[in-house]
Q: What sequence folds into this?
């Protein structure tokens, strides 16, 4: 009897091990154990890696360039493996990314969704470009990620950035926003918020006190007022919006 029980135990363990291995295999393939996930996510979002369309030669150049920056992190033998994984899993990853893509009536939110996908928005918001330069920049980004950034998206975003650049050139509050608000906060955090002038006044007042206590960035009363006016004008509620 003990012999049969022992045999049954061995059989059960065998099938359990096989089933577990089968169940885990897909997760290991797509769940973060890839070398590209481990190595590239240290400096870039994986969305940025997989949303970009490149040929094998272009990926070879890109990954080699990343290795040259930090050869201790990416070894020579890692380069080919990373490229192989990008090419193998790109279709599934890009399909998942485009499935997440949302449409926004407000171009400000469209800008945050599409551009923060690959970049720190602060890097974009501090740029001083003409309308033509913004159009060229955004179109270049679209060509790199056409599955995520459509032609219509690119036109809307370029127009938004051009209008915003013109406003910042004319508005002292815009210069203060760039030089003082973006020091502590990521641009997407700020751009996602919509408040009335009273709401922005309360928020900026709180930031003024926090900055004073931390001795990070000093904000005078006049500077606060200019920033509040800018935010109320560019990120105030619409007629049907009940934001505070």
A:
């Amino acid at each position: 009897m003990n012999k049969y029980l022992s045999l049954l135990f061995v059989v059960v363990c065998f099938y359990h091990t096989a089933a577990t291995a089968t169940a885990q295999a897909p997760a290991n393939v797509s769940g973060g154990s890839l070398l590209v996930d481990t190595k590239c996510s240290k400096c870039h979002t994986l969305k940025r890696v997989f949303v970009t369309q490149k040929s094998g030669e272009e990926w070879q150049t890109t990954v080699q360039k990343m290795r040259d920056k930090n050869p201790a992190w990416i070894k020579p033998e890692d380069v080919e493996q990373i490229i192989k994984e990008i090419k193998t899993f790109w279709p599934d990853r890009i399909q998942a990314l485009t499935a997440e893509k949302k449409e926004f009536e407000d171009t400000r939110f469209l800008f945050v969704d599409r551009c923060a996908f690959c970049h720190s928005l602060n890097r974009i918001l501090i740029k001083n470009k003409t309308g033509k330069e913004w159009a060229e920049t955004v179109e270049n980004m679209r060509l790199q990620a056409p599955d995520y950034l459509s032609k219509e998206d690119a036109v809307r975003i370029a127009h938004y950035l051009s209008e915003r650049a013109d406003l910042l050139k004319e508005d002292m509050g815009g210069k203060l926003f760039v030089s003082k608000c973006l020091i502590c906060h990521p641009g997407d955090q700020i751009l996602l918020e919509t408040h009335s002038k009273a709401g922005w006044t309360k928020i900026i007042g709180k930031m003024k006190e926090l900055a004073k206590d931390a001795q990070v960035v000093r904000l005078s009363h006049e500077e606060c007022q200019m920033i509040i006016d800018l935010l109320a004008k560019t990120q105030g509620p619409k007629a049907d919006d009940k934001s505070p």
Q: What stands out?
A: The chain has three domains: 62-100, 105-168, 171-244.
